Amino acid sequence: MDITKALRYSTLPFAGLALLPAEAVSADYQTCLLKQMEVAAPDATVASLKAICSASLSSQPASDESITVPTPFEERVAVETKTRNELFVISPHKPNYVLPLSYNNTPNTTPYASKKFPYDKAEVKFQLSLKVAVAKGVLSEHGDIYVAYTNQSWWQAYNTAISSPFRETNHEPEIFYNLVMDHDLFGMKVRDVQFGLSHQSNGRSGDISRSWNRMYASMLLEKNNFYLHLKPWWRIPEDKKKSPSDTSGDDNPDITKYLGYGEMNMFYKLGEHNLSMMLRNNLRSDNKGAVQLGWSFPLSDANKLRGYVQYFNGYGESLIDYNASVSRLSIGFMLTDWL
Prior knowledge:
The structure is a single chain. The protein is built from five helices and 13 strands. The protein is mainly β. The chain folds into two domains: about 5-85, no CATH class; about 90-335, Outer membrane phospholipase (ompla), Chain C, CATH 2.40.230.10. α2 packs across α3 (about 45-60).
């Protein structure tokens, strides 16, 4: 079995891409990695297996084939390749994190004015995002269809005066087609493209109901430890409400005025530290947008949790705040990262 065939095509939280070309590693290195994967303990890391093989091969006479150690990004591919078909494993889609210390200096109280809830500036923010392949080899050997679900919540955990409610929860089920690629473009590698359909809603009714449906396309590009993810979208139109109290019709007809028609994500792997930045802009004269900065870092060699610091500024952090500018700093733990 050629391990490069197993590693070559796989999925990631933001894209189901392929990264390891067949010529990337030597035959001896492939054999060593495959053997170590078969006999390794369940909690062994890919990095430890690589170290074993590198040390073993370095003591042997050099062969004609050069040894290229997989990049940190390829390590993630190897892990997902190994686990994607296991019965009790569900792959992450977007990052999964818990931020117990999340502080918003300018909370948006307008949607709750009629209820007069005294919401705290400090709350807990967390995100759960999962995906599963439902069809493989569609239209192409490397084309797969996935369904995914992302839950993002803002919990007033410290606000015991009003029984610590969940201030806002956004649900986003989606279905998308992912096509693995390996093409050069402007000095970068196009690793995959996606075409999907997304529904996002806060599951509320009445004057605090928010939802929208989108069709989107995306492209992931790679250069060394830098990754660029471009995701334009088109909002599926909805009927207008006949009156403000109408339970049917568009709850937020001006949402693209604030969230625009797409977003750009950038990721950089700096040793064991991961840096990320998300940018959105409505590209109008009445300029509105958002930026989100992220930094995840290891807490200890034995702990799979990573520390995570997140800063958000702008419109659309949540659906209830889509038309209100938010400035939030959050600190906590990351379970799975982009890289």
